Amino acid sequence: xxxxxxxxxxxxxxxxxxxxxxxxxxxxxxxxxxxxxxxxxxxxxxxxxxxxxxxxxxxxxxxxxxxxxxxxxxxxxxxxxxxxxxxxxxxxxxxxxxxxxxxxxxxxxxxxxxxxxxxxxxxxxxxxxxxxxxxxxxxxxxxxxxxxxxxxxxxxxxxxxxxxxxxxxxxxxxxxxxxxxxxxxxxxxxxxxxxxxxxxxxxxxxxxxxxxxxxxxxxxxxxxxxxxxxxxxxxxxxxxxxxxxxxxxxxxxxxxxxxxxxxxxxxxxxxxxxxxxxxxxxxxxxxxxxxxxxxxxxxxxxxxxxxxxxxxxxxxxxxxxxxxxxxxxxxxxxxxxxxxx
Length: 341
Prior knowledge:
Helix content: 40-55%
Number of strands: 8
Number of domains: 2
């Protein structure tokens, strides 16, 4: 059965994206007539971030994030652009699936929060317990499978009801709880200056001004020092596991840390054109160079993990590289915070 055969006849245009949530936001808004690129959705939603939470375990290791928490990009972009949205979570699997069926029968494509582990169209190597993956369901095939526009995939696909229900109600942190979301009404027109300004101001606050030293550039330095102490604190085996998760969150979850920097750079360059502010384009070019620093860190960290014999000196060097990333980002976001709108 072709993925274009639907029982709800929703004419939904699939687009492959760099990151799941910003890709879903762009796709859903475009479906309802608001043309917005993925980087612009990411930037207005202030998606760029950093946090290290040693007390929050993800698959048994400390959690690291290079983007803001799930749902924030959609909520903030909607609020700033004047889009009215509806978001629902459920306790009951049956009710969650019924609610999804009701919306697609009405011709409304729906964003869903899911676990990667239960999505059978993902290659086995990428199916691990990550419960914050976003996708769009826009119809059902005659066989009863759901039609899926997953931003990570190059083409639209299908998923059986049982797998989708498992993905929507996976256990672990965070629990998706069947969450679904969709636009209810769109603005007649959009003025870009205020949403862009608000998104930039919030991103600068995230990266520079959160007083807790686990977030923003302070969080990078905090993690850098912990990486340097991994071998002596947790032993060689756990040090490799902990470091491996830092790399996984940077390079494999959505766009990851470096990719988010490249996407935010694209946002700044697009914003420069929309607002006629060439200084934003120059800062975008600088941020691209910061993304290169992160990629180099990941490459070197991967070599340490694969060697299975990363000595203390290797971890010391990796910590210094992350401190370099934090210093570059602090300079960049301080400049960005000074831009006059």
